[in-house]
Amino acid sequence: MRNPQLGVDGALKHLLTLEGLPAAVITQILDTAVPFASIGEREVKKVPLLRGKAVFNLFFENSTRTRTTFEIAAKRLSADVINLNIGASSTSKGETVLDTVDNLTAMDANIFVVRHCESGAPHLIASHLHAVGRHDVHVINAGDGRHQHPTQGLLDLYTIRHYKRDFRNLSVAIVGDILHSRVARSLIHGLATLGTPDVRVVAPQTLLPARIESLGVRVFHDMREGIRDCDVVVMLRLQNERMRGALLPSAGEYFKYYGLTPEKLALAKPDAIVMHPGPMNRGVEIDSAVADGERSVILPQVTFGIAVRMAVMSIIAGSPGARA
Amino acid sequence: MIPMLPDAEATLAELADRMRGAVSPEAAFVGIYSGGAWIAERLATMLGPAHRVGFLDVSFYRDDYERTGLKPNARRSALDFDVAGATIVLIDDVLFTGRSVRAAINELFDYGRPAAIELAVLVDRGGRELPIEATYVGVRLAVARNLDIVLSRDDKGMLALAAESRPSTR
Q1: pLDDT value, residue B170
Q2: Among residues A221, A243, A211, A210, which one has the least CA distance to residue A176?
Q3: Angstrom distance (rounded) from CA B30 to CA B56
Q4: A48, B61: Cβ pair inside 8 Å?
């Protein structure tokens, strides 16, 4: 079966998942993001590529940061941006997701940036657009359920490449709530595709999905073992609502075993970088001394995220299907 | 018919001769990737190190994005001087339709308002589609529209010109 993200010519048409996305396409996105990053350093932080195009931020689930960085990225490409907080409007009146999409397509949308609490929602929208022959309209997954968050995965890959240059000799440890994390899933697929030899997940058994080893990662329950001698430590946000269930005893105990402190970080390589997709829970998964320390690249991640999203939007909006 | 092409190194020397004494001593040389960048570096060596050198990749300003999409291998533009108030000589290898130069001028203005922009090209092959002319020209050639004139650079940094058939997709 053809990868639904790619056109018949192999060009990127939608960005739905990093799973199965060829290394050449990932590398093309990362390479294209490099010149876009330099636009952020200029007096006029705008290029005219997407003039006259409309980007609809379709957020069925709230996220200030992701929506904002997509909005900035689209505006730096000179697109018009329309933000829709769907959770608060149409669906509560009973409209289906696909009816919402059809209505917005009739308003001349060119790109839908979709966040949804259900895994697969962006894929459903892309399939629908294909079925109704709208090959000029593109979908970017901005996070779907526990499934994927591909632009976050790409900006993580961009950050790692920026500081470490090459994936082929790296050890990367991903620490925390792997079970609920679409960020972790996207990053694991991307790291594997780019040939990272050593990817580790570090978490208590209750926060690991079943058969996670099948993704080619090594599993650690002891954080000191898990981050020993690694080049990159990716900390995941521990969502507070997990505490209410039976998954974890308390935030204090979690921090004791899985919080990143200067003492634990000392076990990683001396030049290891620390990443976090945000928003951070200081004192739950990460100590302030680490979050604000010299090895933290958490804020550069946010800045790189704009360039990566500019690259994705400009590549898909210029794909051959858009010109049919 | 493939035209007889002049030697690129000799043409570069002629272009430098025409610019010597005519170009402002403070002018910055800004080459358009990739051929124009090579020429800008060479001209700065030939005409004196006082000329600052910068590079532009015009991929994000091209007018054919709607037709051909984003070109792969876009590079980072690098202008390490203040464009506002600067005298700039834009440098390209081949001047044809004028569309790359239009894109480069637009990009320059997003860095600041230059005092003046001039244009130096190794080859002017005619065929303009925009009202753009070069200030300094290495050589003028008449070339059929179905041919591309391509500049290459070898390991030793020597430049060479070649004619290639245009891909029909354009």
Answers
A1: 45
A2: A221
A3: 7
A4: yes
The model's pTM is 0.93
* Contact indicator for B11, B46 with CB cutoff of 8 Å: no
Alpha carbon distance B90, A46 (integer Å): 21
Please state at what angle helix A298-317 crosses helix A150-164, rounded to 10 degrees.
Answer: 120
**Chain A residue at shortest CA distance from B57:** A35
A266 phi and psi, to 5 degrees?
-65, -20
With tokens 């329950």, the residue in question is A221
The HSE-up count of residue A119 (CA atoms within 13 Å, CB side) is 10
Closest residue of chain B to A29, computed from CA coordinates: B72
Cβ–Cβ < 8 Å for B122, B11: yes
DSSP E strand boundaries for chain A: 54-59, 80-85, 111-116, 138-144, 171-175, 198-202, 218-220, 232-235, 273-275
Residues 6+ apart with CB under 8 A from B37: B31, B55
Kindly list the distances between the CA atom of residue B74 and the CA atoms of A11, A73, B6, in Å, as whole numbers in the listed order.
16, 17, 29
Alpha carbon distance A120, B110 (integer Å): 40
- With pLDDT > 90 as the criterion, what percentage of chain B qualifies? 89
| B57 exposure class (CB count in 10 Å sphere: 0-12, 13-18, 19+) | buried
pLDDT of residue A91: 62
The residue assigned the tokens 């039976």 is A246
β-strands B116-124, B87-95 pairing: parallel
Give the pLDDT score at A114. 96
A27 touches chain B (CB under 8 A): no
Closest by Cα among A301, A309, A316 to A73: A309
Cβ under 8 Å to A: B residues 50-109? 57, 59-61, 65-70, 72-78, 106-107, 109
ipTM of the complex: 0.88
Across the interface, do B111 and A44 touch by the CB < 8 Å criterion? yes
In whole angstroms, give the CA distance from residue A277 to residue A301. Answer: 8
Q: Which of B84, B82, B80, B61 is nearest to B71 (CA)?
A: B61
Given phi > 0 = left and psi -120 to 50 = alpha, else beta, which region is A181? beta
Q: Decide if A315 and B66 are in contact by the 8 Å CB cutoff.
A: no
**Which of A27, A32, A162, A316 to mutate: most B Cβ within 10 Å?**
A32
Output the six-digit token pair for A166. 């090459």
Give per-residue pLDDT as tens, A55-75: 999 999 888 889 999 999 999
Using 50 as the pLDDT threshold, list the residues of chain A that sit under it.
323-324
CB atoms within 10 A of CB A45: 13
